[in-house]
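Long-time lurker. I teach an intro course on protein structure, and each term I like to show students one example going from raw sequence to a predicted 3D structure in token notation. This year I'd like something fresh instead of my usual example. Would anyone be willing to generate the tokens for the chain below so I can use it in lecture? Attribution to the forum is fine with me.
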Amino acid sequence: MKDYQKAELKMMQEVVRFFDENPNLEKTDNSILKTHVTKLKDFIAQIEKNAIKQEFDNTGYTENKKKAKQELANADVNVTASICSYATDSGKNELYNEFNISISKVNRMSDADLVNYTKTIVATATENIKDLKPYNITAEELTSLTQLNEAYSELLLIPAEERKEKKVATENIKKLISEALQLLKRSLDNDMVHYKDTQPDLYAKYINIREIDDSQTTALSIKGTVSDAHEPAHVLQHVRVTAKFKAGQDWKEMYATTTAKGNYQFKGLPDGKCTVTFELEYYDTITKDIAVYSGKATELNITIKRVIH
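-- Reply from a regular --
Happy to contribute to a lecture. Here you go:
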């Protein structure tokens, strides 16, 4: 999972913990809330399940593959040595040149080339099995070589299957998180408005938990807080923040809105200069020029003045 997805999942888990610690919220007159919480728990369980599949651990696989490849290469050379000896005695120079390959060169073959080369060895040896018998090549040995090759081929499929499963899990996580966030925004957040006046402290705690903290993610380009210039302790929500930057030859814009904590953030901005504008009704519009650097979030905290009428 990406850092911002982990931050989103952490927020969801904290929301569930909030409801578990306040079971009185799921009472009869707001029973639908319990249904929505249950759905959120199901989303979390599915996300966590896919996160496990997403982590492809190839510990030990590389070593096993290396060992299997060496074993197959040695078996190949044992057979090709006999083929080359037979080719020399029978004056079949083309056959000799085709299979006169050193063990080091066989080891350097790609996985697919080694598998195909082994098949060619078996096919050629089988075709000349009677002539190769004096050179200690038997049908049993060729069967054994075929089995080694098949085992190696199956081993090669493991990471491909793991990657496919990982890709599916990654897509599932993205979809599940999106649906869970929609559930929070469109259902649970509205359910909780019921308690805004009756239990303001509890409601405030819920709103605080709902804010995603992904300030540690390397994807962030700009982050900060907007507050009232006359009351710095009073943060401002719903401030429209515009980041204007140059992408190639063109100027582009990204938008954000401050949260209940007055926070805003931008991700994935290109390196270079950036103009950031802050706008809120009844407040002065502020514009700042800053620089953006890869892998480092530039912090820009702003205070804006209320327009006095």
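Some talking points for your students: The beta strands are 220-228, 240-247, 250-257, 263-267, 272-279, 286-292, 298-299, 302-304. Residues 139-192 form the longest helix (54 residues).
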